[in-house]
Design goal:
With about 850 residues, this protein is of the alpha+beta class. Among the domains are: about 190 residues, Valyl/Leucyl/Isoleucyl-tRNA synthetase, editing domain (Isoleucyl-tRNA Synthetase, domain 2, Alpha-Beta Complex); about 160 residues, Isoleucyl-tRNA Synthetase, Domain 1 (Orthogonal Bundle), CATH 1.10.730; about 60 residues, Ubiquitin-like (UB roll) (Roll). It has 27 helices and 35 strands. Helix 4 crosses helix 5. The N and C termini lie far apart (about 75 Å). The structure holds one RNA strand of 83 nucleotides.
Length: about 850
RNA sequence: GCGGACAUGGCGGAACUGGCAGACGCACCAGACUUAGGAUCUGGCGGGAAACCGUGGGGGUUCAAGUCCCUUUGUCCGCACCA
């Protein structure tokens, strides 16, 4: 038993202490810090590269596999870029406001501020243990008053520029989180965070006018180096739709209302109009006789949860208001209904119903016995039973009859335009961003309400509006800050009379909408950032984080950037030029990791056993980066073996260093050179596009080739050393501590990270002869060896004259021969 | 319901612009070294006795298809009464 360690441990080869471990990690982390290896160089900005991971929420637990996958591998990428001569700016910080800390406080009584800062300390330590290249001088923490002061400043600037406004509107309410939510935070009718069913509440809340930028947000998407999927999500989220706005008059009154339609060609088929139950004009058109049923229906609609309302299978409901509208194209009187299939937030909240040519209207009309009038026929006898929703030829539409739908849309709107009753209109699905939250742990909204002066922004020199510490934050639907007398009661900055502060805090997405702008200038206490300086450092060149932020953070950050540009604070259009999403590492059972499933993988245990580099390397090698996949214990063991294999290679090289070698450059060296240069080329290209698995594969091949070469009796030690040198440099981004240790072992000067990334020699990739596959009618039958320089004619001859060819060509006619240089020869024959 | 992505050995995953499918690794098998092996090294490894067959299923285009087109199934994602 006593000896088992020695026997079963691989640490005693060649009498020297072997095996990379956490000790090596610590050794180099210390040295890197002491020598300030990763300090960003503020001078040489012509080759700057801003590499950023989405910062994270400081949770109490240790870093999980997902953090390592995102941070560790992006760090490898950053390290490679550094070796390639880039001046890499790679900061890290914390998205520290948010619900978990507050909920934790409600449960345990520990103040969010205390738990958050404690968690941040733990996480900082863990991130340092990971050995990433972060320059901590640029750290930011969004719950620091020095940071949220500027978040509040952002709010005020948006307010001054008409991009922040307050309105009363039906807003999404999560009964469990006891706060409102932005549209983006409602997923399938449920709260994104706690999955409770979201309901509607009529509240006065702050909004950011992101819709003002809908078109530009859409227009810039094609130019972004982002995953297509993410671009598509944003495009759909913005949801541009072209149509017309048409004005209807209410019968017997001066009142008018507009409807948005993409099918102006069907205007002659309108048989009724429908208002959203929440629409303000509902009350105005409702007649006394129908008032009660309208009120009852409004109540019914209001009570529904989002999930109920969104259900497309449910039967249509609605009631007649008693009022009538006049169709502007033919002055026909049509009844006005209200129904919850019309959404208050989209378009004008009113639709013209054309049951003959719209499925929803058709269903509704059938149920309530409303007239259905065909005005479109299918083209060329195309089947056109109702509801016929395609384009076609107009019928029964006065002078427009006979036109195509496309033509009629234009002509009808033109006519309405002349009469001032309609115009072309682009509509967006995107709604303004609701930013108020009835919670404590967030940046306070810097607004004061004064009885005399009304809504008064807090003057800049009074920022930050600090969060009070002693607060009762049990949520009851009212903002915790509202109950904090000392906070809520203040004086009006304008007139000095008593006034009240806004009791809400800002959505944490506001904090993360501009943090990338603050990193480069995080100590600036005069302004959020210096314009000239961030114009030099931004945009972010490579942004890496989860795909779940496609329609929220990434859209908001783009909006902020554009708004700040237009307000004159910066001079670029987009914050993140290139974006990568990491995949998800699943549990060994292939399911999403979760405590309840008991399939979580704790990085710490593996790091303790194998060291941080082995863990990182496994994450790099075992998965397609953007896909992720199931964890596999065997995989990490394999990587550990690979690391040991490299170390043994270095050791055996060193043991024989003094022995004489040759300086020949024969076939063996040529073969080694081929593998070496292939590796350089492939690793450079693959790692650049976050294809780490194939990068590591090429390094394994190079290691295998070196082993093969090492086994030879007579070798060119100088060339072998050069090759090992390249191997270590290329391995260093992925296994930084280990590579640094091997580098030192080889006797090279500190640090490997100050070396130059190797460049491949195209000559070494050329082989003297190449093997080509020969196909007969597309099937590979045999192989031939030809000089690499052979032209098509020579290759064809070699293929046809090969001794193996005869069998296949006997009694057959050669139709043609296709030669693909360097690949194959295809001989097409027939009997 | 609409839109998109994906589907490759026992497993994780490779495959340029249509050009030898299965790189690299795991697992497995054999051998070597060994008192020993869960260490290390060497070799093998899609199926099939072979002809041949093989990239979810079916069809097509092409000299040639994992890759392009049509269709179908399954998984995942986005949107979901958007007028």
């Amino acid at each position: 038993m006593l000896c088992s360690d020695i026997f079963f441990d691989n640490s005693c080869v060649g009498g020297e202490k072997m095996a990379y471990s956490t000790e090596i990690d610590r050794k180099w982390q210390k040295k890197w810090e002491e020598t300030k290896l990763y300090k960003f160089d503020r001078e040489n900005l012509d080759k700057k590269l801003y590499c950023l991971e989405m910062f994270s929420y400081p949770s109490g637990a240790n870093l999980h596999v997902g953090h390592w996958y995102n941070f560790g591998l992006t760090d490898s990428w950053a390290r490679m870029k550094r070796l390639q001569g880039y001046n890499v700016f790679h900061p890290m910080g914390f998205d520290a406001f948010g619900l978990p800390a507050e909920n934790y406080a409600i449960k345990t009584g520990i103040h969010p501020k205390d738990s958050t800062y404690r968690n941040i300390r733990t996480m900082e330590k863990q991130l340092k243990d990971m050995g990433a290249t972060y320059d901590w001088d640029y750290e930011i923490i969004t719950c620091d008053p020095e940071y949220y002061k500027w978040t509040q400043w952002m709010f005020l600037k948006l307010y001054e520029n008409g991009l922040a406004y307050r309105k009363k509107a039906p807003v999404n309410w999560c009964p469990s989180c006891k706060t409102v939510l932005a549209n983006e935070q409602v997923v399938d009718g449920a709260c994104e965070r706690c999955h409770s069913e979201v309901t509607k509440r009529d509240l006065t809340q702050w909004f950011f006018k992101i819709t003002e930028y809908a078109q530009e947000l859409l227009d810039c998407i094609p130019g972004l180096d982002w995953p297509e999927k993410t671009k598509k999500i944003q495009t759909n989220w913005i949801g541009r739709s072209e149509g017309a706005e048409v004005e209807f008059r209410v019968d017997g009154s001066d009142l008018t209302f507009k409807v948005f339609t993409t099918r102006a060609d069907t205007l002659y088929g309108v048989t009724y109009v429908v208002l959203a139950p929440e629409s303000e004009i509902t009350d105005l058109v409702t007649t006394e006789e129908y008032r009660q049923q309208v009120e009852e229906y409004k109540e019914f609609a209001r009570k529904q949860t989002e999930i109920e309302r969104m259900s497309t299978v449910k039967e249509k409901t609605g009631v007649f208001t008693g009022g009538y509208a006049i169709n502007p194209v033919n002055n026909e009187k049509v009844p006005i209904w209200i129904a919850d299939y019309v959404l208050a937030g989209y378009g004008t909240g009113c639709v013209m119903a054309v049951p003959a040519h719209d499925e929803r209207d058709f269903e509704f009309a059938q149920k309530f016995n409303l007239p259905i009038r065909r005005v479109i026929r299918g083209m060329d006898g195309m089947p056109d039973e109702l509801p016929f929703v395609e384009d076609g030829i107009l019928v029964d539409s006065m002078e427009f009859s006979g036109m195509t739908s496309e033509q009629a849309r234009d002509e009808i709107v033109k006519k309405l335009e002349k009469e001032g009753k309609g115009e072309k209109k682009v509509n967006y699905r995107l709604r303004d961003w609701l930013v108020s939250r009835q919670r404590y742990w967030g940046a306070p909204i810097p607004i004061v309400y004064c009885e005399c002066c009304g809504t008064v922004p807090v003057p800049e020199d009074q920022l930050p509006v600090e969060l009070p510490y002693d607060v009762e934050f049990t949520p009851d639907g009212e903002s915790p800050l509202a109950k904090c007398e000392s906070y809520i009661n203040t004086v009006c900055p304008k007139c000095g009379k008593p006034a009240k502060r806004d009791p809400d805090t800002l959505d944490t997405f506001v904090c993360s909408s501009w943090y990338f702008l603050r990193y480069p200038d995080n100590r600036n206490d005069k302004e959020p950032f210096n314009r000239e300086w961030i114009n030099k450092l931004l945009p972010v060149d490579k942004y890496v984080g989860g795909a779940e932020h496609a329609s929220m953070h990434l859209l908001y950050a783009r909006f902020f950037t554009k708004a700040l540009r237009d307000m004159g604070y910066l001079d670029f259009d987009e914050p993140f030029l290139s974006l990568v999403h990491q995949g998800t590492i699943l549990g060994p059972d292939g399911a999403r990791m979760s405590k309840s499933r008991g399939n979580t993988i704790s990085p710490d245990e593996y790091i303790e056993e194998y060291g941080s580099d082995v863990f990182r390397l496994y994450l790099a090698f075992g998965f397609a980066y953007t896909e992720g996949g199931p964890w596999n214990d065997e995989g990490i063991k394999a990587i550990s073996r690979f690391v040991n294999r490299v170390e043994r290679l270095v050791d055996s090289f060193l043991n024989a260093r003094d022995k004489t070698g040759s300086d020949r450059f024969g076939p063996d060296e040529k073969e080694l050179a081929f593998v070496r240069n292939t590796a350089i080329k492939s690793v450079t290209e693959d790692a650049d596009k976050f294809q780490f698995n194939t990068s590591i594969a090429r390094l394994m091949e190079l290691t295998n080739a070196l082993y093969k070469y090492e086994a030879l009796d007579n070798k060119n030690r100088k060339y072998m050393e050069e090759t090992i040198r390249d191997l270590l440099i290329m391995l260093s981004p992925f296994a930084p501590h280990f590579a640094e240790e091997m580098w030192e072992k080889m006797g090279y000067p500190y640090s490997i990270f100050n070396e130059k990334w190797p460049q491949y020699d195209p000559e070494a990739l050329k082989r003297d002869t190449v093997e080509l596959a020969v196909q007969i009618n597309g099937q590979v039958k045999y192989k031939i060896e030809v000089p690499a320089s052979a032209d098509n004619k020579e290759i064809e001859e070699a293929a046809l004259n090969d001794e193996k060819a005869a069998v296949y060509l006997k009694d057959r006619e050669i139709v043609k021969v296709i030669v693909v240089k360097g690949r194959l020869v295809n001989i097409v024959v027939k009997k």
